[in-house]
Design brief:
The protein is mainly alpha-helical and about 180 residues long. The chain has one domain: Up-down Bundle (Ferritin), CATH 1.20.1260. It has 5 helices and no strands. Helix 1 runs antiparallel to helix 3, helix 2 packs parallel to helix 5 and helix 3 packs antiparallel against helix 4. The structure holds MU-OXO-diiron (FEO). MU-OXO-diiron binds next to helix 1, helix 2 and helix 3.
Length: about 180
């Protein structure tokens, strides 16, 4: 049976992962209508991954005798100053998610729910990659210089390739599930 405090902290995390998916959907839509096709593809895939993160928590709670109650989500921002600003927001959001996952790990440890702690460890590791990816993209956009949006074309192509790799890895992970 899942510990009640852990269940409640995980329900909060379900909301955060669900909001992450919605936020990235808004960002991908902005990229698509502003001509950043590669970035749009990359971020649309990120929405799928956030939904997968959310579902992992839902299944963990329900499989351990709890009830994953689903909250309403707030409306994400839908206007961004630039493509640079989009990835700035991605990094800021991922840093927020890391903080939230760390707090969730604290609750698991305090409540001595080691099964949940083992489960949450996957997210601790995932957040290293999530932040590093966002930071890496941001660093490259910074190198483009003053008129970042105008010189983004090649970087957008690179993101398209990264998106294809991300989609393939996601499909492989989904197929590997029992
Ligand atoms: Fe589910 Fe990008 O954190």
């Amino acid at each position: 049976m899942i510990n009640k405090k852990v269940e409640s902290a995980m329900i909060k995390q379900i909301e955060i992962e669900g909001f992450s998916s919605q936020l990235y959907l808004a960002m991908a839509s902005w990229c698509e209508v502003n001509g950043f096709a590669g970035a749009a593809k990359f971020i649309y895939q990120q929405t799928e991954e956030e939904r997968m993160h959310m579902l992992k928590f839902v299944h963990h709670i329900n499989e351990r005798g709890g009830h994953a109650v689903i909250s309403a989500l707030k409306k994400p921002d839908h206007e961004f100053k630039s493509i640079y600003n989009v990835f700035e927001q991605v990094l800021k959001h991922e840093q927020f998610v890391t903080d939230s996952i760390n707090k969730l790990m604290d609750v698991c440890a305090t409540e001595k729910d080691y099964t949940s702690a083992g489960f949450v460890q996957w997210f601790v590791t995932e957040q290293i990659e999530e932040e590093a990816t966002a930071q890496g993209i941001l660093d490259k956009i910074k190198l483009l210089g003053k008129d970042k949006d105008a010189s983004f074309f090649l970087m957008d192509k690179e993101l398209e390739v990264m998106a294809a790799a991300k989609i393939a890895a996601f499909a492989a992970a989904a197929n590997a599930k029992p």
